[in-house]
Amino acid sequence: MSKPRVLLVDDDPDFLVIYRIYLEAAGYQVDTAPSATAGLERALAARPDVAVVDLMMEEMDSGVWLAHELARRPELAEVPVVIVTGVREETGFDFTLKSDEERAWLHVHEWVEKPVSRERLLELLARLVPVREEHP
Amino acid sequence: MSRVLVVDDEHGMREGCRRILEPEGHHVTTVADAEQALALAETETWDLALIDLRMPGMGGIELLPALRERDPDLVCVIITAYATVETAVAATKSGAYDYLPKPFTPDELLMVVRKALEHRNLVLEARRLEQEAGRSLLQLATERSRLRTIIDCLAEAVLVTNAAGQLALYNPAALRVLGLRALALGEKAETALGTFPALVELLGRAQDCSEDMLSQEINLPGGGVLRAVVSAIRDEAGACLGSVCLLSDISELRQVERAKAQFVAMVAHELKAPLAAIEGYLDILAGNIGRPDEAQRAEMLARCRQRTGDLLKLVGDLLDVFRMEQGLAARTVERVALAEVLAEVAQAQEPAAKLAGVTLTLEVPGGLPDVRADRQEMVRLFTNLVSNGIKYNRSGGSVTVAAGVEGQHVRVSVADTGLGIPAAALPGLGSEFYRVKTAHTRAIPGTGLGLAIVKRILEANHGQLQVTSEEEVGSTFTVYLPLREGGQRDRA
Whole-prediction pTM value? Predict the structure, then answer.
């Protein structure tokens, strides 16, 4: 039985701990990285099934940068990316991801308001990568 | 009491008149000929002159205009024994008000005198009214120019249009806020103000006075924002005469509002992250999610406590920023011995330095002059700088606080041997919640308000801050405070 692998990228160490506990308790295998560049290294080292990425880390848009870096690597291009952010407060931008164009342009599958509740996080991941008995 | 002059060459006539008029309360002066009358007129005035037509020397017909030349309002009555139509006409032509034929009865005299004096009162009243009218006309003219001056001096821009939508009046402020050199009076608003379609549209809506007041924000082509308030002008009967439009430049206000909204959003964000972390830990502990063991539970509680402490510090810093911004902080500007302040700060920061493995050194020469400042603010200022120097350092590093006099300033530098600040990040220093994010700074707790507070304290104390930094080598924050009060007034 292989568990789906989630990559958590956040520069707030507490969120890494908290989300890891949520996800491991729900049957996911969790990798963490404290920055976008470290996140890319982790993703290259151990291909995740999904990435949950904070938007603002080293830069204002580190999360989107990481999504692009994943998208341009064939082996990682299919990894769905969830951006977690208080984006309206942080940047003043209001991405809704309502259109496919927006999704494609940002290479982001979901855009969720921070903080994400445990229920919301699990519901989101269940949709993107169901916990399966058999994992390829 | 009226003053009456009697000019007659007959003694009996003069005395007769006196006897009839004086009992009626008139003051009577009598003279025997025209020459005496003219001589007396140099020093005296009368309400009424009774003048004999035929006298030796100058006659009444010649005397009359001579007297009226001296006093145009003098009422004259000609007394004549030759009561004919010709004499009456001649008398009237020479300026007489009436004539009295000889011989006359006392009643006839009194009646003529009463009538003449009534006329005199009318003349005087008319004269008074005329003078008054002249005065109020003058006042009116002054009032108009005063009003015009006031309108021209208003900081608010004024535009007046008439009922036909033509520009009727504007003041210099209108040209200024609209960025125009001139406006053509009498032109239609849409022609004169063609480059401001929103304003033209607003004036158009106000033109028929259907609304008493309209207000709207007008975005200027250059990026500014005006608030336009248009009021209907109606006459006393309520008919529409046009409209008056006041324009005020609210660009700066808008910018301040935007900055405030941004600040509130940032504060909300900064408060939310630690709260969410605490909530997450509490959920895990309460729900026994992932079944953490004792050590893990203790670690989570320690993190909760840490983040609660961070939150409290953030709220404290926010209140400081707010109080300084509002000028609410009770400031006491006094002579402050900086050497004392620096020693105090160093002592308070020593434990933190020890914990971080950083050597804290104070290089303050004896006789460092006092500055005029708020002591509490000085303590806060150097505490923030020294605490930053310790936090953003490395184990085995140092923080050196050095002071000295440079020109008209006391200079205090806080130099660390820490991480340094990337050149690209330097301009952002001092902005609220701006924290330099690198792999090394991630683990360092901070509110992002420390330098913002430093900046505000320096502004309030006419000081300046200079930052030099090299990555991986260290940063030096140098503060300049004026030696004498007002030494930096021109820069304040």
Answer: 0.55
